[in-house]
Amino acid sequence: MIGLVVLYLRRYMPESPRWLLTHGHPEEAERIVAEIERRVREDTGRDLPPPAGASLRIRPKRLTALA
Fold it and tell me: What is d(CA 51, CA 26) in angstroms, rounded to the nearest whole number?
């Protein structure tokens, strides 16, 4: 039963931008982040502040293991 609920909800929940980047879908990741930023701007009337601190480098995986 729980599995059916998860399958149903997956249709309406976007993938994580980080997952998309590591699996070779940077355009989709950028689209999702832009949508999040748009919603924050719409709800608060302000832009998100730029990230502070160390940068993060994400590289696409060459192979995804099943185990």
Answer: 19
